[in-house]
Amino acid sequence: MKCPYCGSTNTRVIDSRPVDENSSIRRRRMCDQCEKRFTTYEKVETIPLIIVKKDNTREQYDRSKIEAGILRACHKRPVSADQITELIDAVETEIFNMEEKEIPSSVIGELLIDRLKDLDAVAYVRFASVYREFKDVNTFVNELKKMLDKDSK
Question: Distance (Å, rounded) from C-alpha 19 to C-alpha 76?
């Protein structure tokens, strides 16, 4: 493993422990050259997943894109980093459990929206407004009304 500080390839593992319900391993490493410490994670490699976008283009699944969207939606909201990670992990697990080689981005978007709805109402509306491409204020208001109607029942 290459040291992120000095670039040396002489690093050693000083601690290992399972994380995410034993689905990955967290390794604490130390560089033999600069003696700085850093953390790496090891996961089982999964089948490459292809995402079919709205315009029918295809690209490889990229967790960081989901993270970026959720982080934008949760910006300045009382949602912890752990809650965001749990949400993304849950959606990711659901996606990979489908055992499909190609999944439409709409499926992922709806899974994220469903979970965000339970996590934070404002983050849900922010994400939905971008994901569902609200064309005008009326569409936005209609979505809010749906949410308020569900909460009052």
Answer: 28
How far is 8 from 103, CA to CA, in rounded Å? 39
Cα separations in angstroms, 114 against 7, 62, 64, 120, 125: 42, 20, 19, 11, 11
Distance CA 28, CA 37 (A): 7
**Buried-exposed string 77-100: b where 16+ CB fall within 10 A, e elsewhere:** eebeeeebeebbeebbeebeeeee
Distance between first and last Cα of the chain: 54
pLDDT tens per residue, range 16-58: 998 877 778 999 999 999 999 999 988 876 668 899 998 999 9
Token pair, residue 59, equals 């690209």
Collect the ranges in the chain with pLDDT lower than 50.
none
